[in-house]
Amino acid sequence: MTGEGLGRDTAPSPPAEAARPVARRLGWAPYALLLPSLVFLVLFFATPMFQAFVLGLQDRGGSWSLDSIQRMLADSKFRSAVTTTLAIVVLVLPIQFFLAMSMALVINAKLKGQSLWLYVFALPLGISELAAGIVWVSIFTQSGWLNTILQGLGIIDRQIIWQSAETPWLIILTVVIAESWRATSIIMIILVAGLQSIPHEYLEAAEVYGATTWQKVRRVILPMLRPSLQVAMILRVILAFQVFATVIALGGTGVTVLSAEAVRWANDIDNDHVAAAYAGLILMLSIMATALFLWLLPTREEQYA
Question: Please, what are the domains in the chain?
Answer without folding.
Answer: 76-129+168-299 (1.10.3720.10)
